[in-house]
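Pasting as-is:
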Amino acid sequence: MEIRTRRLHIDSCLFCHKLFRSDGYVSEPLPTPTSGRCCLCGQNYAETQKLARKRLDFTVALKIARAMLESRDASKAYGALVDSLVSTLIPNLPNDIRDYQSRVERPEVRNVVIPRLQELLEQHKRSFGCQGTTNRRAAASEDAENVSEKKAEEPVDTMDTIFSHERMDRIKTNVDVEIWVASVVRLGVDDGLFEAELGKWTASEHLDKHRKHAREVHRKLTTP
């Protein structure tokens, strides 16, 4: 009965259905309630539905939750979270974590989850600008700074410009690839259209060498 009840909760919440689907039980989610809060993740059902329509934000939120599930040690959880992301997304992590906090409304869940999220924020602060960071996090910190500088110089991508020749000409480095793919996912570009665009890269020497990295980044940004 306990297992069945848990599965019903998982199938009734879009967020939990994605988060726990790797436990060997997979089914189509039930119609999601439009009001109330999930007993497992504590999030407002209506807010979760809105989040699910933003593919990149939804994926990042699931990665935050999965990192907390992987380890109760804040340092290890933060390390797992950074490893699951690309440098493009790291500068915005504090905002993503705070957004997650704001969606957890169920009191008994907040009492457990909010302190864990605060620990992740503290780990982020320590990892950026702290002398004692690991090589991996120091590299991630440097990459994130490069991304922040690069993004500040870039025009905002839109559906009208994302595949333009001018936009493609600005892709020179791995950081450029990550910024572009993040925009692709954020704009909700269909996976098939993304693959079709990558297929055109074979005709360009400077783009063709980035195809593999673009696919890897896309997989990371679309896999919870």
